[in-house]
Amino acid sequence: xxxxxxxxxxxxxxxxxxxxxxxxxxxxxxxxxxxxxxxxxxxxxxxxxxxxxxxxxxxxxxxxxxxxxxxxxxxxxxxxxxxxxxxxxxxxxxxxxxxxxxxxxxxxxxxxxxxxxxxxxxxxxxxxxxxxxxxxxxxxxxxxxxxxxxxxxxxxxxxxxxxxxxxx
Length: 168
Fold this sequence. Notes:
Blueprint: H1 5-12, H2 16-29, H3 34-47, H4 68-80, H5 84-97, H6 99-116, H7 120-141, H8 144-163
Helix pairs in contact: 1-3, 2-3, 4-5, 7-8
């Protein structure tokens, strides 16, 4: 996930209220709290402590009584009292109330990570295949330089395949 330019601007201008509002809103966009965590780390690094003391309100951690109304009430309350206790409650509530959305985001993130992970073995296979084609083209056209380049590409591809520890 990426931190938006708008959030960076809020942090750089030291607009703590805006930073807190954007942080709490991120919980609704990403109920896994992944985006919140990334934004929180950035804000804390730049601004220091962004939290306030808890106002003493007794928070309801009973999941059986959580609903949209209580979530909305706490979303409003967190603007005035951005305490770690209230934020943890909100994180738990959105994970619970928006479980399907959180699961979907986790699944998509996991699939994107798997798809973006290319091993040396895969690269080596591609380089070797290109080398074989280049070697064949060099032999067919009687170009020694092309043939040698193709053989070298095959060798590099084989080295990549053999040296791959993750794809094994």
